[in-house]
Amino acid sequence: MPNKSSMIDFPGVRDHIGRNVRLATIVRLRWIAVAGQLLTLGFVHFWLGFDLPLAYCMALVALSAWLNVFLVIQFPPRHRLTAPFAATLLTYDMLQLAVLLYFTGGIGNPFVMLIVAPCIVSAATLPVVYTAAMCALTLLATYGLTYEYWPMPWYDGIRFELPLLYKTAILTSVGTGLLFVAFYVRRLAHEGREMSAALAATELILAREQKLHALDGLAAAAAHELGTPLSTIYLIARELQRDLGPDHRHAEDLALLQSQSDRCREILRKLTRTPDAQDPMHQSVSIIEVLSDAASPYRELGKKLDISGSPVEGAQGQAAAEPVGLRQPGLHYGLGNIIENAVDFAKSQVDITARWDGTKVTVEIVDDGPGFKPDLIDSIGDPYVTSRGAGSGKASKAASGLGLGFFIAKTLLERSGAFVELENRKAPATGAKVRLTWPRDAFAVPDGWRAHNVAARQAAE
What is the reported pLDDT for 199? Predict the structure, then answer.
């Protein structure tokens, strides 16, 4: 049986994104930088009247503008940049701003913090090696601006000069801010990509299930096409049997042909039954039946599986009745994944217990294995988080602990209305405990559903 915990092996789910940055994004950000630099230079030079090396500064801004024009002409807007190319463009943006700062006061320029912007973009989109190199280069450039720069544009006859200690404090502020923000943004971007990949894997599983359901439609179409020739065969066989009489040597063959034609027609009637005309006895299942069905593939793996259920003490009347709801493939898949992991890591036994009352239904899946790692138990359920070492079952050969498979299972269970809790058993016992809690209404069969399906089934037949 395939291991549900190894969903990480789906093609394309966790491929590294080597072309993660669109050219249009880089170009758009640079146009914003060009506009901001032009406005700032114009305001300082013409409005405030400060003397700037305007020719050098405007040449740097024009260089960025012409670079954008070149990129737009050379590449289509949706072009995806390779990591080295994107890193080169971002490095240019950082160096262009560093040179602009060099001509306008160095590290004392109030806009010096903008030098970290290209590194932040790199942290969010590029591999760590490029980000690390860009951060190092940015810190080196900032260090150079601490000692080498043109004087800050200021009023005539006054030289604005910050003390070295204060400039060193600004350098420290830029460095710590760069490292903190880059790490924080990279972590958020990484988690976002992991979550997107995990959701893509979930959608892939659901898409495969939908393809299986689509076979019902193909079967119905085939049944419709086969109905006419089967009716013709049946009628010809009946006419031949009547004309040849019961004593003819082919009478038995004709009778067999009629009976098999009847059987085929009955099969076709079942295939052409409408989707909402499902068998109520099959589609409505109790909580114990759901757990038994989900656990059945894992009973032959050498571990004892004990399934039990009962109402909560004190529950009476309808509250004590076993919950019965519609069959849900997502619920079945999620329970099966958790039970598989429990069996894989259990030493000898897995206990599955259901309890219910008038307001909620609770299922606990408990194994006697090593349990969850305490330092990771709060993170389990996030995609690609592995909490336990290799187990003893077949699942451990493909994936150690709970990873993407558990994320998918948790997602499907939460869609069914479940609240998922994880904990370790209390000493001296060892093992993991997964508690699933649904509102009682999650297992309620809609009013009139059974009668509607019985009527639809009878009409189809």
Answer: 67
Is position 450 within any domain? no
Could you tell me the strand order of the sheet in which 304-311 lies? Answer: 304-311, 349-356, 360-367, 432-439, 419-424
CB within 8 A of 334, min separation 6: which ones?
Answer: 408, 409, 410, 411, 412, 413, 416, 418
Threshold 0.85, pTM exceeds: no
In a domain, 232, yes or no: no
CATH label of the domain that carries residue 409: 3.30.565.10
Boundary residue ending a domain (204, 237, 262): 204
**Looking at 204, 239, 255, which one is the last position of a domain?**
204
Q: Which residues pair with 349 in a beta bridge?
A: 304
Give the pLDDT of residue 222. Answer: 62
Split at pLDDT 50, 70, 90, the class of 53 is confident
Asked whether residue 333 is assigned to any structural domain, the reply reads yes
Strands (E) across 303-397 are located at 304-311, 324-326, 349-356, 360-367
Query: Which range of residues forms the domain containing residue 183?
Result: 4-204
Q: Six-digit token pair at 271?
A: 């295939």
Query: Which phi and psi (to 5°) does residue 150 adopt?
Result: -80, 155
Q: Are residues 156 and 297 in the same domain?
A: no
- Concatenated DSSP letters of 163-211: -HHHHHHHHHHHHHHHHHHHHHHHHHHHHHHHHHHHHHHHHHHHHHHHH
Average confidence (pLDDT) over 239-254: 80
- Domain co-membership, 41 together with 135: yes
Q: Residue 264 is encoded by which pair of tokens?
A: 């085929």
Whether residue 237 lies inside any domain: the answer is no
Counted domains in the chain: 2
Q: Looking at residue 353, what is its pLDDT?
A: 93
What's the CA gap between 138 and 255, in Å, rounded?
A: 91
